[in-house]
Specification:
Number of helices: 8
Shape: globular
Distance between the termini: 104 Å
Strand content: under 5%
Number of strands: 0
Radius of gyration: 24 Å
Mean pLDDT: 90
Low-confidence stretches: 1-20
Largest sheet: none
CATH class of one domain: Mainly Alpha
């Protein structure tokens, strides 16, 4: 029986594989995409679909880790809060337990964090940012930052943290540092000011509030 060889058409074209991801880094890729998107379009503009596209995974992949967009935003914001807490704790180490010196140092550290971690800062506090009660993790991280500042203010006033005067004073200091940070990030300061001058202005503004 005569056998015919199959005509060769050259090497078979290699099928393009979808971009792979490992289960262990899917969550990381999605959180990185969330922070990047929030920096570009604001937290309110982040979508699960766009985060998946940016991470290079399927549109359904985010549901492996998050029930909805708010959960994904909250997870990214929680990371930012942890970073903020670490930055604030590092900022007050040189104050040697003096609460007034700590208030100045923690305010400067807050503004520096906003400048150094702008993407996280916008995600945590910008338009559309997740409410701190969305997840227990975000709530706990946010409370840790709140308690750190409140504790310093309470020691400065020599009052318990639950005292209304301590909470009002804490809000005053936080609003001052936050306002300086936002003015700088939104480029609303109508003259050129470098980072060192901005931090020095923060230091002077908070010091002017002391003693509380």
């Amino acid at each position: 029986m005569c056998q015919h060889k199959r005509a060769s058409s050259g090497p078979m074209p290699r099928r393009q594989q979808p971009k792979p991801y490992h289960h262990g880094n899917l969550r990381r890729a999605l959180l990185d995409a969330t922070v990047e998107l929030a920096a570009d379009v604001g937290a309110a503009g982040v979508t699960l679909r766009e985060a998946a596209r940016l991470a290079g995974v399927s549109q359904t992949a985010p549901y492996r880790h998050f029930n909805d967009k708010q959960e994904m935003l909250a997870a990214a914001a929680e990371e930012g809060m942890v970073l903020l807490l670490e930055a604030l704790q590092a900022g007050i180490r040189g104050a040697k337990g003096d609460p007034d010196a700590e208030l100045v140092a923690i305010s400067v550290a807050y503004v520096r964090f906003a400048l150094d971690h702008t993407r996280y800062f916008r995600l945590m506090f910008g338009h559309g940012s997740p409410h701190k009660s969305v997840t227990p993790g975000l709530q706990q991280a946010g409370r840790a930052v709140f308690q750190l500042l409140l504790g310093i203010v309470a020691r400065s006033l020599k009052k318990p943290p639950a005292d209304p005067a301590a909470r009002q004073a804490m809000f005053r200091i936080w609003a001052l540092a936050h306002g300086i940070a936002v003015l700088a990030l939104e480029k609303q300061i109508l003259f050129d000011i470098g980072t060192d001058a901005l931090l020095a202005a923060t230091r002077q503004a908070v010091a002017a509030q002391l003693p509380l």
